[in-house]
């Protein structure tokens, strides 16, 4: 039929040979567009699974673009829907820190201006908790507001002040910021403690704190813990705190800081974003 389709109608040949037209058309070689679709679907699957199932169509589209594949975001969304891929869904979660009555707090200098012009100018921090069969695992994180990179991480079975002290100290040792660093947090008792205030004074750090009950004042940290839980920990049942610690550390150090594309950063990773800034600074000097 393929050999003679230029001389005889497909319908006539199908009738004589006793086959359907659909049988003939299904035997044709795939079109260029069909082949292109198959290749894009293959890349979409690879990107989705490499993201640990956390990417929706915007990030998958950004990853395709980074790899040189030209495809609209709307088409990516249609393809993902067609093959049953969607980002992990969010769940509600509670806050953990509490304010000590009578504690001396700092003004909200940050005032929801979640932009820094360079690394180590503004750090934000908070505490959350992860359930395990042994009990709660408390997780304290510090982010550099410039790149959203996790620069301090401490975990333990208690959310006492030592947890936030260790987190800040870890960031300070690794980053060695210049004078004038601002540290923003909520008004939890750990951050308003005498011990933490002494630490801030020692390093001449300007402290900024959210208003009472204003979760949006520390929205970057709220967003981080939302991401950690809905992309990672909500999908595990940890037997021990140590198991949860290892899993969270691997997610943050391997995936979040180095592989996860951040929409706020123009779909770059935190490590890439800081490296690009450093390279640009060197070329300008």
Mind explaining what this structure looks like?
There is one protein chain. The protein has 285 residues and is of the alpha/beta class. Helices cover 42% and strands 13% of the residues. The chain is built from 10 helices and 5 strands; from the N terminus they run αααααβββαβαβααα. Helix 7 (194-202) links the parallel strand 4 (182-185) and strand 5 (206-209). Helix 3 (32-50) packs across helix 4. It is elongated. The termini are far apart. Mean pLDDT is 86; it is low at 92-96.
- Annotation field: number of helices: 10
Class by SSE composition: alpha/beta
Flag low-confidence runs: 92-96
- Helix proportion range: 40-55%
Write the element-wise H/E pattern from the N-terminal end onward.
HHHHHEEEHEHEHHH
The dominant shape is elongated
Strand order of the largest sheet: 3-2-1-4-5
The count of strands amounts to 5
**Main sheet?**
5 strands, mixed
Radius of gyration: 26 Å
Measured distance between first and last alpha carbons = 70 Å
Strand content: 5-15%
Overall mean pLDDT: 86
Distinctive features:
285 residues; alpha/beta; 5-stranded mixed sheet; 10 helices; 5 strands; 42% helix
Ordered list of secondary-structure elements with their pairings:
Blueprint: H1 10-17, H2 21-26, H3 32-50, H4 57-66, H5 73-82, E1 122-132, E2 135-144, E3 149-156, H6 161-175, E4 182-185, H7 194-202, E5 206-209, H8 219-231, H9 241-256, H10 270-284
Parallel strand pairs: 1-4, 4-5
Antiparallel strand pairs: 1-2, 2-3
Helix pairs in contact: 3-4, 4-5
């Amino acid at each position: 039929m393929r050999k003679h389709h230029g001389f005889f109608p497909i319908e006539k040949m199908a009738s004589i040979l006793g086959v359907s037209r659909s049988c003939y058309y299904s035997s044709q070689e795939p079109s260029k567009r069909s082949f292109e679709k198959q290749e894009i679907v293959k890349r979409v699957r690879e990107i989705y699974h490499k993201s640990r199932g956390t990417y929706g169509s915007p990030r998958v589209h950004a990853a395709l673009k980074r790899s040189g594949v030209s495809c609209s975001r709307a088409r990516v969304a249609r393809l993902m829907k067609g093959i049953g891929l969607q980002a992990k869904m969010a769940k509600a979660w509670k806050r953990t820190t509490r304010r000590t009555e009578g504690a001396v707090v700092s003004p909200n200098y940050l005032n929801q201006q979640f932009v820094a012009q360079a690394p180590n100018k503004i750090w934000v921090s908070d505490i959350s908790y992860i359930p395990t069969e042994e009990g709660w695992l408390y997780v304290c994180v510090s982010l550099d507001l410039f790149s959203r990179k996790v620069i301090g991480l401490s975990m333990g079975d208690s959310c006492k002040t030592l947890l936030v002290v260790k987190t800040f100290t870890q960031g300070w040792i690794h980053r060695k910021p210049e004078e004038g660093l601002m540290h923003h947090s909520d008004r939890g008792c750990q951050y308003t403690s005498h011990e933490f205030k002494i630490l801030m004074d020692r390093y001449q750090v300007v402290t900024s704190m959210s208003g009472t009950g204003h979760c949006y004042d520390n929205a970057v940290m709220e967003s981080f813990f939302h991401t950690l839980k809905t992309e990672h920990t909500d999908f595990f049942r940890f037997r021990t705190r140590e198991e949860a610690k290892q899993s969270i550390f691997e997610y943050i150090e391997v995936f979040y800081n180095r592989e996860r594309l951040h929409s706020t950063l123009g779909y770059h990773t935190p490590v890439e974003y800081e490296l690009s800034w450093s390279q640009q600074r060197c070329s300008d000097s």
